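Support request, please re-run this one:
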Amino acid sequence: MKTTGMIHRLAPLVAGLGLLLGACTKTPPEALGTLEHDRITLPAAAAERIVAVQVREGEQVQAGQLLLRLDPAHTRAELAAAEAQLRQQHEVLAELEAGPRFENIDQARANLAAAQAQAREARAYYARLLPLKSQSYVAAADLDRARAAAGNADGQAAAAGAALAALVHGSRPQQIAQAQAAAAAAAAQVRAQTVLLDKLSVVAPRGGWVDSIPYKLGDQAPVGSPLAILLAGDTPYARIYVPEQQRAGVHVGDAVDVYVAGRATPYAGKVRMLRSEPAFTPYYALIGEDAARLSYLAEIALGADADALPAGLPVRVEFAGAAK
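Re-run finished. Output below.
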């Protein structure tokens, strides 16, 4: 009986000790994710055949290194046509700026003189016929034809005078502006074709590793299709999904421990990005009841000691500061 009473008196003490030990050994909040590198996709600038592949999948490349080359024949022809169009527009502009030739002006003066002479002759002939009408020495139809010829000759003389004036005044400012705009458009087309020709030689914009080359030698990929996918950056980062109930305790700049699959020792990391808009937790980052909860995408920067880690490995991140 004494033993039973003692057990009843010690039960609350044992329960309190258990709670204290549980609080001391409470694990910090954690989140799951994967190691990632920045993925760079290099699309096809033109639907041309692949004529050279200089790298292999998994190969490390440097910035500016040639990866593959597309057939440049068609683009070079388009560039040559654009350059010819540009030269033509430059010549048209130069002609308008120079104005008419002196020979053309002299020809217009001669045409005006001839038209004026014909007009004087036609008017004189009409003037000679006009007095004869009252004496019925000339038919009314002949007089009408003479009057029409005189008017037509005057019109021809006026047209020749206007043509001479147009040549003397030269090109209008609007014509020169239009020629300048056409030359600028042709120059832009040349630049566009030059850029396109350069893009047919696909180079690495950053150093990294070749993750994938979807098309092979001889293939003709559609415009915009990925010709090569690179994993850029020397050090991977951890992409994790912070559960909803832990979001308030995690901030950009917090130090965390990153446990990588296959490595017993954690890597030191720091939260460099934390999304403010939530999303549902992906299947590979589920933790217990978190499957029905929202999560927040975050990125964890790692140090130089993680350079050799490959992308795609599962990681577990512990937020030591959030457990306090």
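Residues 140-169 form the longest helix (30 residues). The two ends are 44 Å apart (CA to CA).
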